[in-house]
Amino acid sequence: MRCIIVDDETSARAIVAELCKTIPDMEVVAEFPNALEALKYIRHTKVDLIFLDIHMPKLSGVDFIETVNNPPKIVLTTSDKNFAIEAYEYEFIVDYLVKPISSERFKKCACKLESTFQKTPLEQPEINTTQNEDEDLYINIDRRLIKLKFMDILLIEAKGDYIEIQTRAKRYRVHSTLKKIKEKLPECRFLQIHRSFIINFTQIIDIQDNSVLIERSVIPISRSNRPELMQRLNLL
Amino acid sequence: MTEKPNLNYIKEISGGNEEFEKKFLTIIQTEFPKEKIEYAEYLERDNLEESAKVVHKIKHKFGILGLNSGYKLAVKYEEDLKYGDTKLKEEFHKILQSVEEFILKIA
């Protein structure tokens, strides 16, 4: 079981790492002092489990959970007992450990993990890391494959079973999902800022309150996606 | 406040691994003073919201060092700070002081 530890406190990470040594087959492959670094890591590297602190600066554990696509199993670690009930609203959250974590409690967590992974084999779709910014995207419209250059795409909007791809010249309606197209887009240019919108953030004209202006379109930014957007911008 | 910081929890986690104990104490000796300064600076600037965030981290150290009552007080103090209430400040500072002395002693 390949796991990572995400916590802004070095001491907290050290404790979890030491406790992990007591569990056979559990390997700590990386530790991160903030959720953004962890987010970047799991986009390119397969992990089975994340020990995730809730209270972290910049991007909190909750923001992380809401941002990440296809998350692996997560064990929350926090000093805040009040979050426990909310935590179990997410099906990929296996357990909730209140700090300081005792050895006994960690063993119980390990048992939960064992039974969870027995039910769901350790498998995750491979993430394509060979995306090239210069690549084009072909879309299927009426049995015709139309080439779109990434740089020409302004934004993509989810509309039921379809997505609408807006370029400077035209809007294309394609039978697909935001999730599928997101996998094909280069991360250095595109970002999901709302559950219904992916934008080419190099095309942003301005950002005001909770919306982005791209050409003449005003796109809402969801609370959970805002930190990542702000992180990507070259702010003065 | 009669309770004193101790290493029981660290020894429980280490399972007798002295190397881990040493490494961990070094981490605490580095991390705690920084957090204490950070907390004091926010408090001085009357930024109670940020002070509360640092208290959240410090309370974990109290728990690690076996300060159960101190931990409970820090939980309350953290919540109070969020509402602009600093009445537990002096008691919290006494615990900070005892942790600082303990850390210096084991250095």
Q: What can you tell me about this protein's structure?
A:
Chain A: GO terms for molecular function: DNA binding; phosphorelay response regulator activity. Chain A: InterPro entries: CheY-like_superfamily, LytR-like, LytTR_DNA-bd_dom, Sig_transdc_resp-reg_receiver. The complex is a heterodimer of chains A (236) and B (107). By secondary structure, chain A is α/β, with parallel strands linked by helices. Chain A has 2 domains: 2-119, Rossmann fold; 136-232, OB fold (Dihydrolipoamide Acetyltransferase, E2P). Chain A is 27% helix and 33% strand. Chain A has 7 helices and 15 strands. In chain A, the strands form 4 sheets. In chain A, strands 2-1-3-4-5 form a 5-stranded parallel beta sheet. A 5-stranded antiparallel beta sheet of chain A has the order 10-9-8-12-11. In chain A, strand 13 (204-208) and strand 14 form a beta hairpin. Chain B has helices spanning 8-14, 18-44, 48-64, 68-82, 89-106. Chain B contains 5 helices and no strands. With 107 residues, chain B is mainly alpha-helical. Chain B has one domain (8-106). Helices cover 79% and strands 0% of the residues of chain B. In chain B, helix 2 (18-44) packs antiparallel against helix 3 and helix 2 (18-44) runs antiparallel to helix 5 (89-106).
What's the CATH C level of the largest domain in chain A?
Answer: Alpha Beta
Count of structural domains of chain A: 2
Tell me what the CATH architecture of the largest domain in chain A is. 3-Layer(aba) Sandwich
Structural class of chain B: mainly alpha
Instruction: Please report the total strand number of chain B as a whole number.
Output: 0
Helix content of chain B: over 70%
Return residue spans of chain B where pLDDT drops below 50 for at least 5 consecutive residues. none
- Most residues in contact, chain pair and counts: A-B, 18 and 22 residues
Oligomer: heterodimer
Structural class of chain A: alpha/beta
Radius of gyration of chain A: 20 Å
Number of helices of chain A: 7
- How far the N terminus sits from the C terminus of chain B, by CA atoms, comes to 23 Å
